[in-house]
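Reposting from the mailing list since nobody answered there.

I have sequence plus structure tokens for a pair of proteins and want to know whether others read the tokens the same way I do. The first protein:
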Amino acid sequence: MLIAEAVWADRFRRPPWYLRWLLTVGYVVLSLPAVLLLVGPDRRDRSIWESTGASCRRTFLRPLSDGLRPGAFLVSPDFRHVARMGWRFLTLLVLLAAFKELLTEHPRWTVGCAAVLIGLLCTRLNVADHVIMAAARSQEREKLLDFLEERLRWMQAHCDEIVIVAHSQGGFLAHQLMTRDGGRNQSKVMRLVGVGSGLKPIRLLQQLRRPLVWAVAWMLPTASLCLAWGASPLIEPSSSEIAAGMLMYLEATMPALVVPLGAQSPEFTSAMLDSVAESMRQVQFGLLFLGDMPWERWAAIAVSAALTLACGLTIRFRIRPTAERLFALPPSNGPQQLEWEEYSSQHDMVGRMLLPTLPRGVEQEATPVLGHPLGDHTRYFDDDGLLTRHLAARLLADVESSTHQSLGASRWAETVARYERALRKQHDRRRCFQGVLMLWVAAGSLTPRMARGATLVDAVVGSWQVLAAATVLLSAAFTWRGRRSHRKLVAMLDAELRGEPQPAPSVTIVAPQHRAAATLALAIGAVVSFLGALGLTMLSGLQPAWNVRSPGAPMIAAFTLAALAAATGSGYRVRRAWIAGAGLFACLPALASSGPLGSTAPAWAKAPGGPLAATVLVTLTLALVSLSRARLVHLPEASSNCSPSVPTAGKALPHSRRSADDVESGVRAGGRLAGAPRITR
């Protein structure tokens, strides 16, 4: 039994078309905290919410110890939590900046876009109205449940056992159907499967009508705003002495990378060391900046801490105990209890939500789809989807248990599980690579503006065009690449299920514990190359007689090394030729420039950019050594069975994209199975 929007979308009464848009916008505004959870933590951040059983002291000291280890940011869960939240808030700021620019600079376009949006909200394409109906209109919801219950009654009269597959808002409706009147509808229903379910967001919208939950939902954003404003003198480069000192340090060390060693006199070295010492004093002064903060800032921080503490205590003792019972299904009256499973992609904006939590054992491992927040929600049942093949394994297991025939369900399930793990790791690697590249773009776009005194928010607003273009281009490129790799692995899975010989594993990932050294070395080489390119450009203008050639070559090396560092840190295997090519570009000014004409120093000591070339070569050598010793993981893993093909009537399935009805008809055609079919789709 499939419960999707196509089944029930025309079975409830909508508000008049001229009021539909206004009611939708008003409901979104009143439920703004729930909307903000779309950029909040997801299922990958489960460790934030769940208790680990460790003491408070260990929980506090673990992030501190991780922060002291080089490269811990690559594997630390805490850093991944912060990175995901930072990426989402950066995207949100870019969208708000784009909206502000559209509203202030192009009012006619704003009016046109608003008219188109209002027109869409007035039509039957207003999917948000479906969510509002399920969450807030109890009469219409009960009528819809009556309709679904009538269809379920028909299924119960004609089938022995029923499996319900519910997608999106259907997950909430199916859950309501199973909890109605103490679980009276659970008769003959053996399994409830939620796919990208809207159960969590709709239930959260319902809970916002409770005054206590509503207050907590608004207190958390308020606490975040108070903390951001109170701590802004410490985190904004315009008023942070630490950031100013770091910029002074980079400016002081930049000449040492490009000036030839033979031209670095004792006076030059002394001046550089004095500048470095001054920058360090400024950093130390910035660390003591807390005493100069006005009382208003301290009051805002205290209010933020008090609100956060109040929210934590309220959630712990008043909300969480009831939330754990919120989704519990009543026990079934039959001999077999109802199995409840929830599947979602890691990136599906509807199904990935962390809160509220479901009962233990309900949420399954993430289903690899495509890796797109919007596209994943509608692609679970595509021809190249892994979820359909996973459900087919469950179907075969059900048929085996009812007919006592061996159909190879365990081998099918094991094969699908191996490819699911491979696709999940591949999606994580690709998503991490995209995020680190976006981090490099953001750093290059925001740093110049922040160095001129802009705050972080002002820098994002001022650079929203570059950030928006990079976001769209990277998303399009990685989505296209992800679709190709996904289809390739699914084709391999289908071939293996048919019993065909398999090629070598197509996914090679560097083990996480062997990425840190190479990533740090390549990142340092990228930063040094970038600073060297700026210094060589300045040196060519200050000393034209030195004949500085190709001052922009280290900039190409910097961009290349930055991309290679992002790829290595994400788990990609980087070719050594690319690293060698980037090193050649970094050394090109030192090899092609002549340097001071009257100098009697050796050629290597009077070449501009010589220290830069030596530094980059050292870092790249360390990276190459680390990469040569890294352990590689090949996915998918080798099968534990000799032949993973699934026999049906004496032969393998011709193709794994067969529906449940096709599989069942194939089993019955074998002439070995007696009795009526027991699985209904």
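The second protein, same order (residues first, tokens after):
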Amino acid sequence: MRLIRSKDSKALKELSPFLIMGWQMVLTIVLCGFLGWWLDKQFNTKPWLLIGFLFFGVVAAMVSFLRTAMNANKKKNNYKL
């Protein structure tokens, strides 16, 4: 029983960055979109800042995704050695 729990916790620890990745991507894009919308409202520049910040949010989310995937790949390769 104890052996099973240790294997499960190890697997969960390895998967944890990927489990939160979807929420992280959505929140990044939504928060950047909200910031762009709010700035458009303040400076009366509709819709340019919204579009710019949404684009920035998508790029930032993809960079974060790729970094997480690359770090997981490095850990996997180092673990085999």
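Reply #1 (J.P.):
I read it the same way you do. The mean pLDDT is 86.
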